[in-house]
Here is the input.
Amino acid sequence: MKRVTSVAAGIAMMAVFGLMSSAQAEQPAAAGKSTQQLIPTSQIVGAGIHNANDEQIANVDDLVMNRQGEVQYVIAGVGGLAGLGESQVAIPVESLQCECTTEDGERECVMTISMTQEKLSEAPKLEKENHAELFDSAWIARNRSYFSAKSEDNAPARRAGSLVLHSNLSDVWLNTPTEKEEGQIETLVVDTADHKVKFAVIGFGGTLGVGQNYVAVPFEALQLRLNEDNAFEVSTNMTAEQLKAAPKVTSPDYDELQGDEFRNQVKDLKK
Here is the structure.
């Protein structure tokens, strides 16, 4: 089972993704562009971050959220070559916009920030082990001021296990009351209107991703527990049978979740 190392005091964190505002999400779609508000994190992590001139100036390395699924930051890699020598910065999610385009049946998502590469590279750096800066109220205030983002009211109250990195939840096994390691977390699905993870996609069976089946469950139906090794374990109150009978989705876009009726079926699982 893949473990999630913790941030500060050995805590795990989760990466954050750049998302569009609700006002942008409600605008009519231009040709080839999607107004959908639900985006799999698998299409956010690894995506490029562009400036206003559509020049790529950074990459999305990871995402940071709290246990409730509220995305806080996008961890971006700036500078370097092929990942070597790059620095990491934590961009507040509200400072980014996300736009997805579909061409020849394939969707690509791009983050945009109103900042030059030079200015982005001068942002406060994440240099401590496990991004411990994100638990430092003074660093957080300085970082959010740099990005002209609203200050966080709850930053000083953060404690071990309160933040989780997306990269450490990917492929983690899910435990049920009746079975351990029953399916793996394939991806999370974010609502760009409120920057919150709404669903988790769980994969079953197959070999190296071939022949695998996927179901969607509400993120609220998952429990994250920090164990004695300072690693997160993920569980649900759903039985293995209920989990396998959950509404099925199709990789890689999981477009079924764009439908209101389908989403309501998934949301009913947590009742």
Observations:
- The chain has five helices and 16 strands.
